[in-house]
């Protein structure tokens, strides 16, 4: 078992705990670990109470710094009848600049958050657990540059969803922004 000093949770290698991950998330992490063997030891998972999956409740319950949490929000917009979708990764202390940065990056007139039912149906993940690791093909994954910045309060780690509400993933922010398909964007987050 791997341990880390992040909050009061017990962290284990995610590749060893498929029971704590959405199937697509486990497949994404396992595939990434084949390409980059450091991933197997660096991407960790911890079980949580599913009723505490929302960021504010989780950080309070498990003594995690709010700045460690990275939210993954799904957005969409249209241009010339074509829908363009993206997952936006921003620290929980900020919010995604959907009306300016995301709209510009997707090259759409208006970008909006996906409704909860659609987000969970299309991602195959549970609300409160949506993660950039294992999203369906076709989603752009946009990460604010601040996600990679080492936060001493979090020991360089960030906490993200696991695809299910009953667990969370922790990994170095600098590693998350190097995950397959992630695009790092300056100014994606505001606040």
TrEMBL record:
- Name listed for the protein in its UniProt record: YbaK/aminoacyl-tRNA synthetase-associated domain-containing protein
- Domain YbaK/aminoacyl-tRNA synthetase-associated residues, every copy: 50-174
What InterPro entries does this protein's entry cite?
Answer: YbaK/aa-tRNA-synt-asso_dom_sf, YbaK/aa-tRNA-synth-assoc-dom
Name the Gene3D superfamilies for this protein: YbaK/aminoacyl-tRNA synthetase-associated domain
Signal peptide range = none
On the tree of life, the source organism's domain of life is: Bacteria
């Amino acid at each position: 078992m791997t341990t880390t000093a992040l909050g009061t949770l017990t962290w284990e290698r995610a590749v060893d705990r498929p029971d704590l991950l959405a199937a697509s998330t486990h497949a994404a992490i396992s595939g990434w670990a084949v390409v980059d063997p450091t991933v197997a030891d660096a991407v960790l998972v911890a079980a949580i109470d599913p009723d505490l999956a929302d960021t504010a409740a989780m950080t309070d319950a498990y003594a995690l710094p709010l700045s460690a949490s990275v939210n993954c929000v799904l957005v969409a917009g249209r241009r010339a009848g074509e829908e363009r979708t993206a997952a936006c990764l921003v620290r929980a202390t900020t919010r995604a600049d959907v009306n300016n940065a995301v709209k510009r990056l997707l090259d759409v007139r208006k970008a909006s958050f996906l409704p909860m039912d659609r987000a969970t149906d299309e991602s195959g993940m549970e609300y409160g657990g949506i993660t950039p690791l294992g999203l369906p093909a076709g989603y752009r994954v946009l990460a604010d540059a601040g996600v990679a910045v080492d936060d001493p309060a979090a020991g360089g780690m960030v906490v993200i969803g696991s695809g299910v509400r009953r667990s969370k993933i922790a990994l170095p922010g600098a590693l998350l922004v190097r995950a397959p398909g992630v695009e790092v964007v300056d100014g994606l987050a505001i606040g």
